[in-house]
Amino acid sequence: MIKELPESWSLISFGDFLDIQGGSQPPKSAFKSEPSDGYIRLLQIRDFGKKPVPTYVPKDSVTKLCEKDDIFVARYGASLGRILTGMEGAYNVALAKVIYSKALFEKKYLFYLLKTSIFQAPIMMISRSAQNGFNKGDLYPIEIPVAPKKQQLAISNKIEELFSHIDAGVAGLKQAKAKLQQYRQSVLKDAVTGKLTETWREQNADKLEPAVELLERILQERRANWEAEQLKAFEEKGKVPRDDKWKDKYKDPLPPETEDVPDIPIEWGYLRLEAISNIQGGITVDAKRKSDETTLLPYLRVANVQRGYLDLSKMKDIRVPNDKVDSLLLQDGDILFNEGGDRDKLGRGWVWRNEIDKCIYQNHVFRARLYSNELVPEFVSIFGNTIGKEYFIKQGKQTTNLASINKTKLSAFPVPFCSLNEMTKIIEFVTNKVGKTDRTIIELDKKILHASQLKSSILAKAFSGELIENIETDETAEQLLEKIQAEKQLLEEKAKLAKKKPNTRAKKMDKQPIINVLKKAKKALSVDELFEQAGFQNDVSPEGIEAFYQELKIVTENENVTVTPVMLKEKKQGDKFEYKEVKENEAG
Question: In a 3-state reduction of DSSP, which class is residue 367?
């Protein structure tokens, strides 16, 4: 909602003085990733982000070009309404170039104005999906405030001055946050490589058991788990094993590959992930799955499984065949690993702690369920999120758009293990050190958010006339608008005249002075009527039209010529001209 504006300002509709122009969409077969002769940069929304991906297309395949000073509005998707500037080339259909009069707007004033809720709020309320975007008609009714040109410059300069101070402060906050994140990562790496508990181990050396003894118990529990599964399978088939020969089918886990893993204390050891846990993929999302004999359950997606935490703010449901529910339900302590996504996000994950009742997971997420309660799930997950990153990047398979890691590679992931007492102590140290760091990071994030809100507050004040004191100006915004409107109308009239084709009557008419036409006329004449009756219709070249308007300008300076505006719904539609001779006694 726009507050009351200063007297020298005006409120206009977007469509009265601005417009937008959509971009070009050449075929993708013409795209190149490197510049080349005869090619031009095709700007897309992503090019204005932190990681632009340049695209070049043949110059003759595009008609919509832009310069660095041009302003764009993003038309589609998550970027809907985003205001962009600062690049030149051609631009695609996802961008709409703002067409504006430089006589009416300072570029920076308009750029910042379009970023405010004055313009953004109506766009977000457009009653169509973000994917379909907006069209010209959606923008035309939006009302925006216009300050006098001199004030526009002062306002935009003040905005940039204040923003520079805020940006400097935010840069300092982000540097502090980056250092804390580095410290956090260092603590986590030290935790899963034994450095964090080095002193503790020395103090408790007499209480620590050799790694080989713990290893033996872990492998015994792994075998016991396998045997229980085999007996369950026999029971489901209605069979009873005759002897113990079926136990010979058990396969011991392969030794871990430890060439690329860090050194660990002698009390520790390495095992493959498959040696300490049962690994299983999730359910495939299938919109065609029928509701018969299924249960609707919430499920974890890749977006929910972050590095070191679970983001459960946006959950989705899926229909699960009833005979699959039990095998897919997550249990307390399950370790989650992402199977696909960007290469640097492979293997990222955290531990499920029954945050949601009866939850499952999709096929792009693996779950590892530990065999032994002498292992701490958070310890394994921290190792995967730190040291394991390089393993997953190296072992991942890259396709055109996504990377993935399969169950075989995940099963071979080497994981360190140590005594339960030390693992518990490690998590205690981590919770203390990382907890304090995380709380500080949260406070920094709040300050960064406040800085963003402060910018919004500055913009709100700027475009309600509260940011700067009134600056004396030669003309008000209303006077400027009238001048721009007159120029716009003149251009429209010229364009209209240029399209005129002389009729039979006009072809027979000789050109005569406009003043003579007015003297002979018994009524007021419009521009169209004067143009025809003065014989100009036989020459609709730019030069001929310009000559008409130059003569008309001279005529209007005649004291006997009256110019009357033609109004429709309080908007000027044109002028009518009439000759009324002023008598000497009236002229005085």
Answer: strand
Strand order in the sheet with 83-85: 19-22, 95-99, 71-74, 83-85
The total number of residues written for the chain in this structure: 588
Full DSSP string of 377-395: HHHHHHHHHTTHHHHHHHH
- Of 65-79, 80-94, 345-359, 466-480, which gets the smallest average pLDDT? 466-480
pLDDT digits (tens, 9 = 90+) for 326-351: 999 999 999 999 998 888 889 999 99
In sequence order, what are the beta bridge partners of 143?
Answer: 13
C-alpha span between 182 and 434 (Å, rounded): 11
The H-or-E segment that residue 281 falls in is strand 277-281
Question: Rounded to an integer, what distance in angstroms lies between the CA atom of residue 364 and that of residue 302?
Answer: 7
Burial state string for 469-507 with b = 16 or more CB within 10 A and e = fewer than 16: eeeebeebbbebbeebbeeeeeeebbeebeeeebeeebe
Distance CA 36, CA 55 (A): 11
Q: In this predicted model, which residue has the larger pLDDT, 571 or 138?
A: 138
pLDDT at 586: 53
Would you say 95 and 73 are in contact if contact means Cβ atoms under 8 Å apart? yes
Q: What are phi and psi of 226, to 5 degrees?
A: -65, -45
Kindly state the greatest CA–CA separation across the chain. 134
For 390-433, write each residue's pLDDT tens digit. 999 999 998 767 889 999 999 999 999 999 999 999 999 999 99
Alpha-carbon gap, residue 57 to 25, rounded angstroms: 10
Return d(Cα 202, Cα 207) in angstroms, integer.
10
Contacts of residue 265, Cβ cutoff 8 Å, sequence gap at least 6: 194, 198, 201, 418
Query: How many Å is the Cα radius of gyration of the chain?
Result: 37
> How far apart are the C-alpha atoms of 464 and 2, rounded to whole Å?
7
Candidates 489, 459, 454; CA nearest to 566 is 489
Reported as a single tens digit per residue, the pLDDT across 101-144 is 888 899 999 999 999 999 999 988 875 554 567 888 999 999 99
3-state SS, residue 148: coil
Cα–Cα distance, 587 to 585 (Å, whole number): 6
Q: Among 459, 444, 580, which residue's Cα sits nearest to residue 515?
A: 580
**Which sign does the torsion angle of CA 581, 584, 585, 588 carry?**
positive
**Cα distance between residue 2 and residue 367, in whole Å:** 53
